[in-house]
């Protein structure tokens, strides 16, 4: 197993064409944090033709356009209609999805991103409810990005090590609530959390991402991001339960986590919030692919 782990890490380290997050997304985040004027934001976003095309496609879709609104033909109007906050989330989601284009196809790929976007779309709200604390734009974006990227280790393992990873997938049944990282560790000697954390480091993302993504299924994290990690774990578990229909039977061995989960579901009025976030995520995945 140690051999397999070393083989995986060594091979990943030599891959030249590893996905990158586009520069536009970082430039946009910076411009939004600095409260730049709309034309400047538009000019920045327009540098990315694929992003522009997709935002226009999305804003003209039935879900975003609504029954009576006129079609939109330019990015500035699209951003005004969406609002800066929503536009930023869409740009982030598109960039993540685009970076991993080709890392999967069909329903499995769509489900993967739907799950990630639901977690992303719920984390900031869950944080504010749990800690009774209003997040600023930057912290909200970090939590959204965290949700979006928390499972990319799965895509990376599946894409670069298909035979090995299929051995994990074949024996794993989410509905039975079996622990994916445990299976991964048995077969590979490492988990999708390890690989996700490795990818965050490779992308030079802040330590928050490395720590939280590297521990989003495990106990015992001792570091500065316990609040963010707790939210990510809770929302991830809650979303997985909802997706697999195990909400009623969910029985994690960690009783504290379980009661926190139930409390959060109650406070988020889970049905309503999840339906709403789910519909938006569904639309995003369909339009952004
Ligand atoms: Fe995960
Ligand atoms: Fe997940």
Task: Please specify the SSE layout and strand pairing.
Layout: H1 2-14, H2 23-33, H3 38-46, H4 49-59, H5 62-65, H6 75-82, H7 84-99, H8 106-131, H9 137-149, H10 152-160, H11 162-171, H12 180-188, H13 192-202, H14 207-214, H15 226-244, H16 255-267, H17 270-288
Bound molecules: fe (ii) ion (2 copies).
Give a quick set of tags describing it.
about 290 residues, mainly alpha, globular, binds fe (ii) ion
What can be said about this structure in brief?
The chain is mainly α.
Tell me about this structure.
Helix 2 packs antiparallel against helix 3. About 2% of the residues have low confidence. With 289 residues, the protein is mainly alpha-helical. The longest helix has 26 residues. It folds into two domains: 203 residues, Hypothetical protein af1432, CATH 1.10.3210; 80 residues, no CATH class. One fe (ii) ion binds next to helix 8.
Strand percentage lies at: under 5%
Q: What is the alpha-carbon Rg in Å?
A: 19 Å
Ions and ligands: fe (ii) ion
Number of helices: 17
Task: List the helices and strands in order.
Answer: HHHHHHHHHHHHHHHHH
Shape: globular
Distance between the termini: 36 Å
Report low-confidence residues grouped into runs of 5 or more.
247-252
Give the count of structural domains: 2
By DSSP, the count of extended strands is: 0
Mean pLDDT across every amino acid position: 84
């Amino acid at each position: 197993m140690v051999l397999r782990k070393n083989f995986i890490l060594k091979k990943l380290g030599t891959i030249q064409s590893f996905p990158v997050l586009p520069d536009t997304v970082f430039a946009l985040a910076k411009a939004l944090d600095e409260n730049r004027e709309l034309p400047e934001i538009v000019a920045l976003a327009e540098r990315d033709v694929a992003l522009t095309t997709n935002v226009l496609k999305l804003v003209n879709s039935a879900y975003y356009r609504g029954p009576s609104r006129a079609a939109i033909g330019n990015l500035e109007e699209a951003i005004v209609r969406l609002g800066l906050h929503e536009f930023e989330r869409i740009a982030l989601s598109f960039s993540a999805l685009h970076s991993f284009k080709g890392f999967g196809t069909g329903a499995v790929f769509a489900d993967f991103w739907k799950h990630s976007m639901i977690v992303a779309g719920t984390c900031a709200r869950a944080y504010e409810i749990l800690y009774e604390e209003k997040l600023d734009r930057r912290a909200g974006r970090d939590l959204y990005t965290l949700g979006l990227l928390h499972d990319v280790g799965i895509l990376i393992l599946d894409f670069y090590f298909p035979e090995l990873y299929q051995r994990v997938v074949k024996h794993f049944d989410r509905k039975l609530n079996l622990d994916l990282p445990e299976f991964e560790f048995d077969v590979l000697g490492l988990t999708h959390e390890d690989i996700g954390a490795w990818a965050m480091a490779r992308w030079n993302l802040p330590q928050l991402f490395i720590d939280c993504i590297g521990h989003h299924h495990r106990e015992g994290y001792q570091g500065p991001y316990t609040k963010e990690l707790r939210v990510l774990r809770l929302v991830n578990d809650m979303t997985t339960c909802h997706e697999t229909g195990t909400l009623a039977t969910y029985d994690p061995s960690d009783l504290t986590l379980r009661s926190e989960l139930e409390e959060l579901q109650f406070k988020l009025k889970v049905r309503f919030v999840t339906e709403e976030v789910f519909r938006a995520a569904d639309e995003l995945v369909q339009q952004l692919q």
